[in-house]
Amino acid sequence: MSNGEDKKVIYSMHKVSRHHGTRQVIKDISLSYFYGAKIGVIGLNGSGKSTLLKIMAGVDTEYNGDISVSPGFSIGYLEQEPQLEAGKTVKEIVSEGVQETVDLLAEYDKINESFADPDADMEKLLERQGEVQERLDELDAWNLDSRLDLAMDALRCPPQDQTVDTLSGGNAGGWPCAGSC
What's the pTM? Predict the structure, then answer.
């Protein structure tokens, strides 16, 4: 990276502690990482790994200490045992991770269909179509299906047309890539 982003600390945690009732789960954790860093959290069962990750992602806010995320960055969190909506296919569930792009593509299609309406405000439609197309270009949305297929293949997900309620013996939360997606 030529703009120095690789030397920028994008996340910091300073002296973070967390209690569950009277039990202290984590104590005085401090860490920082640079843009592009790959991190791993290793520890015994019950040692606070999930608690730490939930705090880092902003899911758990009941902690003491300070956390800083650089502007323009966000942290996501994928549950180990996600609650998946029965009846949806693997592809539909995976697509939820790029919902903004999916919604923009649907809006783009709806705008194009609206051009057939003789009463449509063509100027307004053209303006909105340009805005949506610009955002879709920024998101590389035109290649979304191939990128999702590549990601599902890399994660060894089940067939994309299989419904999630038939996976892992009917347990919707137990599909193979749930813990590693």
Answer: 0.52
